[in-house]
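User: I've been trying to design a sequence by hand for this structure and keep getting stuck. Would you show me what you'd pick, starting by listing the structure so we're on the same page?

Assistant: Good idea, let's start from the same input. This is the structure you sent:
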């Protein structure tokens, strides 16, 4: 499983003219699921996301997690995180999970974050979405449950 996490001062996702999800301070999280992912991959990404200490403390150091600052998460499913561009010019998405598995893992991620008391907004799975955000910092973190980077 992969995640691109951006610390934002605000973010929203729209489907057509309708706002599907919107947050102020927190994380915009793009999630990608691989065919071979298991429950432990989900747990790894979940734990890393909610415990990342990238919010500033009173001394201006990145030392606080999203829960400690009362932040929210806007979670957006993004299979293109598994786009392989090493050969040719057209990405291959052969490692990306199928629709059923991807949606299951995405929904589990959202549910588990909510269980931990963090507000979560979402995009719409499989929809064409327009995402707007103000990256705070900028801070962008890449996570991969297989630890390839």
């Amino acid at each position: 499983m992969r995640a691109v996490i951006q610390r934002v001062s605000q973010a929203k996702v729209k489907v057509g003219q309708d706002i599907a999800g919107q947050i102020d301070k927190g994380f915009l999280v793009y999630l990608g699921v691989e065919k071979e992912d298991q429950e432990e991959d989900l747990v790894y990404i979940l734990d890393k996301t909610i415990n990342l200490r990238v919010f500033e403390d009173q001394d201006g150091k990145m030392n606080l997690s999203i829960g400690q600052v009362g932040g929210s998460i806007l979670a957006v499913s993004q299979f293109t995180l598994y786009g392989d561009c090493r050969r040719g010019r057209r990405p291959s998405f052969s490692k990306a999970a199928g629709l059923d598995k991807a949606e299951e893992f995405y929904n589990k991620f959202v549910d588990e974050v909510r269980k931990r008391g963090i507000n979560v907004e979402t995009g719409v799975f499989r929809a064409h979405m327009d995402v707007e955000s103000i990256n705070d910092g900028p801070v962008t973190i890449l996570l991969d449950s297989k630890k390839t980077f």
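That's my pick for every position. To get oriented when you compare it with your attempt: The chain is about 20% helix and 40% strand. The chain has one domain: 2-143.
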